[in-house]
Fold each of these.
Amino acid sequence: DHRDLHSFPTRRSSDLGTSEIYTDNMSLTEAGHSTKAVEEKRVRVDIAAVKESIKRREIIVRWIDLKSQLC
């Protein structure tokens, strides 16, 4: 589910460094690194923002198994 992507704060990587984002959502991880378009328009806008942040090296999105999460 990509609904909360718009809540990421927008900051320059030069201000804060690179943030690592861990998610158990494989489709989010794949969408952030794929050139394939997302079907839903609203989600497409959010994924575009994630991709731009990855490109600027502001964030790194990594998949993690649900069982490996601390909380």
Amino acid sequence: LYAGVAQAGQPRLSVSAATGGQVTISWSGSGTLQSTPALQGTSTVWTAAGTTSPVTVTADNVATFYRVQGQ
């Protein structure tokens, strides 16, 4: 897991293990959790994964990247 440094006023992302092969993603402030299966620079397509913190997702063997898009 990567824990980057948040800039002032930016949402702060936190990931923790949950039960049953799941992880919980939470963030501070407002914003929408978005996910993508691959990072492709400026052409990366992000899909909404949740609007209310926290969100619990299944941790499988497929790479998935997450970000919070502020409002």
Amino acid sequence: IGEIFVDMIGGRQQEKNYTCYAGGVPFNLAVAAHKLRTGVYFMDGGNDKMGSFLLEEGKKQGSDPSYIQWD
């Protein structure tokens, strides 16, 4: 149980030039648990640009998005 964060690194605020990374302890632990073949699911997602980014990052790590409920 926890949340996933989007870490935005670099760039100037005026230029909005950032590189985004999925992060946060819960996300990192979920990815590690998934690699150990345990049942890990994300249940809730924000229906916005960052939510879509996190969905794609989760898919890259093998996450099953079928349980996600969008806010």
Amino acid sequence: RATIIYQTLNLRSIQCRTNIGDIMKNKIETLYLDWFNNFLTVERFAEYYGMPVDKAHKVIRIGRYLNHRRG
């Protein structure tokens, strides 16, 4: 499950923030909310989803932005 979500994310598109589609935005926001509600550390979140820690930080940062933008 975790590997499939990470592969679906295609983290290269995260770097180009203006070109992320609505589906990608929802997935990133969902990952952020999962981190916020279920993990104590970024390191454990990254390990669970099988991604490097620096990518996990990017996912969380962008997901937080998307979530807070909703108001």
